[in-house]
Design goal:
The complex is a heterodimer of chains A (about 350) and B (about 160).
Chain A (H helix, E strand, L loop, with lengths): L1 H56 L4 H12 L3 H14 L5 H11 L1 H7 L5 H14 L5 H5 L6 H13 L3 H13 L5 H11 L4 H8 L5 H13 L6 H5 L7 H14 L4 H8 L5 H14 L5 H7 L5 H13 L2 H12 L4 H16 L4
Helix pairs in contact in A: 1-2, 1-3, 2-4, 3-4, 3-6, 6-8, 8-10, 10-12, 11-12, 12-14, 14-15, 14-16, 15-16, 16-18, 17-18, 18-19, 18-20, 19-20
Chain B lengths: L11 H7 L8 E5 L3 H12 L4 E5 L2 H11 L3 E5 L7 H10 L8 E5 L4 H9 L2 E5 L4 H18 L7
Parallel strand pairs in B: 1-2, 1-3, 3-4, 4-5
The chains are: A mainly alpha (about 350), B alpha/beta (about 160).
């Protein structure tokens, strides 16, 4: 009796397991079919939408066509969002205008909501749309993403640069100052795209006791963006104890091209660190000032190859005066290294057709 | 590696071009792995009655540039396989394709890369780009080709 019972239990268990496996298999199979079907449908829809969008971009009245496009496709926001992200990243100039209209009329509110999505991919996709289509009053929503994962944070920063009001600029600099592990490349791109608007914020940050690597980027940006109003703030770092900051100051002074840079750069050309000397000599060359000739002549006799090379090229940048100096140094026999460097620079000039 | 040929039927001009004469309908070969850029550029150029042949891979694009002899090659610098700079350099080394006009499309906003392309005789456009500027540039290049009537047939 117990044996029969046992067989029945085993049989039922087996049947139960079989049914469960079959149900699971059926579920996976059905789900796969559904997903594939949806992907196929989405692809077809994407292709149709893309064709319509291309017609909008080349229409005689792109704004009107964009409004018609938005009316036609507003129910397919998921696919439309993918299309807008792809075209936003491919297009520049006036062609972005119709995309902005479509964004406004179909998904702006939804995208704002989805900035708080628990899914990283969704947040990223939405914030990427705000890079070009955000308005200043939406900055507050984007700012919340500045503490997100790095990829979302970078997109958020890019979006903020698009609505660069004084408030958002202040937020960007505050974030940079407080960021424990800043991505310098990303910040450099952002500051570059913000341009000369950042001058007051850069000045304020330069006056704060920030870590040297952050100050180094700020000094670099002052030179790269030609923020001549920051000349005095930059020159302060020429006497800084940190070598890297002195290098950056020398480089920025060479870009700012302020006549008063001459004296500072001359003193940096005599810096104990050869890296600072090399950069200061290079920047002196950018000044294209005849007063630099004695300093450059002296630097051409430096024991360091980089300093000699920069001195040679700086002399060449001065034109005829510098070339004559180089020829004289190339002829002299007292310092063979200086003569070799001068000859090499002259050879380069001849090869480049500059002599 | 896929490539999608333009769906136009070759007209008599193209037929005569294949026979060795110059084409009346300009023909552009577009090599880019990004389908959005491919569709965008092709659409804008077709609106200007320019025949566009699309290719998504560097090796395929290079082979087509050599066999199809387009009037202009538009190539993405970072196309997979043989990249845009390599394609340009290989075309310039080959006497048969040395004079082929090339427009480099690239998201690399780098001075060295731009100078290198210009030195090799290619135009350069940075992505993202304005399609209107691209079309104007392409039309100018094609007009130059027509004005100079460069015959690129092998000797």
């Amino acid at each position: 009796m117990s044996k029969t019972m046992l067989s029945i239990v085993v049989l039922y268990s087996f049947a139960y397991l079989l049914l469960l496996s079959a149900a699971l298999f059926l579920f996976i199979f059905t789900r796969r079919l559904v997903v594939e079907g949806r992907e196929r449908k989405d692809l077809a829809l994407y292709a149709a939408m893309e064709e319509d969008l291309l017609q909008v971009l080349t229409a005689a009245d792109p704004r009107g066509s964009a409004r018609a496009f938005a009316r036609k496709h507003r129910t397919h926001v998921r696919v439309l969002k993918q299309l807008l992200v792809a075209y936003r990243e491919a297009l520049a100039g006036r062609s972005l205008e119709p995309l902005g209209i479509i964004f406004d009329r179909t998904m702006r509110a939804r995208c704002l909501r989805e900035l708080r999505s628990p899914w990283l991919a969704t947040r990223l996709q939405n914030v990427r749309l705000f890079v070009d289509f955000s308005s200043p009053d939406e900055a507050v929503h984007v700012v919340e993403l500045l503490n997100d994962k790095p990829v979302v944070r970078l997109a958020a920063l890019n979006a903020l640069t698009g609505v660069a009001s004084p408030d958002t600029l202040g937020i960007i600099f505050e974030l940079f100052e407080k960021d424990p592990r800043p991505n310098f490349f990303a910040y450099s791109n952002i500051f570059n795209s913000l341009g000369q608007r950042i001058e007051p914020f850069l000045r304020a940050s330069l006056r704060k006791p920030l870590p040297p690597e952050k100050l180094a980027l700020l000094i670099e940006m002052a030179g790269r963006l030609l923020l001549r109003g920051l000349y005095r703030d930059v020159i302060r770092f020429a006497g800084h104890g940190n070598k890297e900051l002195r290098i950056r100051a020398a480089r920025s002074l060479g870009r700012l091209l302020a006549p008063a840079s001459f004296r500072t750069l001359c003193s940096l050309a005599a810096d104990p660190a050869w890296e600072v000397q090399a950069q200061a000599i290079r920047s002196l060359g950018h000044l294209k000032d005849r007063r630099t000739v004695p300093v450059l002549n002296k630097a051409l006799c430096s024991p360091n190859w980089h300093v000699r090379y920069n001195a040679g090229t700086a002399l060449a940048e001065l034109g005829l005066v510098g070339v004559l100096q180089l020829q004289e140094i190339a002829r002299q026999k007292e310092d063979r290294y200086a003569a070799d460097m001068a000859a090499m620079v002259l050879d380069t000039l001849v090869l480049a057709g500059g002599a | 590696m896929t490539s999608d040929q333009d769906d136009r039927t070759p007209g008599p001009e193209e037929a005569s071009a294949r026979a060795g004469k110059r084409r009346a309908v300009p023909r552009v070969l577009l090599v880019d792995d990004d389908p959005t850029t491919r569709n965008l550029v092709a659409h804008f150029l077709r609106k200007e009655d320019i025949v566009v042949v699309k290719s998504s891979g560097g090796s395929d694009g290079l082979a087509r540039a050599r066999s199809d002899r387009p009037d202009l090659l538009i190539v993405d610098a970072a196309v997979p396989g043989v990249n845009g700079f390599e394609i340009l350099s290989l075309l310039r080394r080959d006497p048969e394709t040395r004079s082929l006009p090339v427009l480099m499309l690239s998201s690399i906003d780098d001075e060295e890369a731009i100078v290198k392309s210009l030195e090799e005789g290619a135009d350069y456009m940075i992505k993202p780009f304005s399609p209107r500027i691209l079309v104007a540039k392409v039309k100018r290049i094609l007009k130059d080709v027509e004005d100079h009537a460069v015959d690129r047939r092998p000797l």
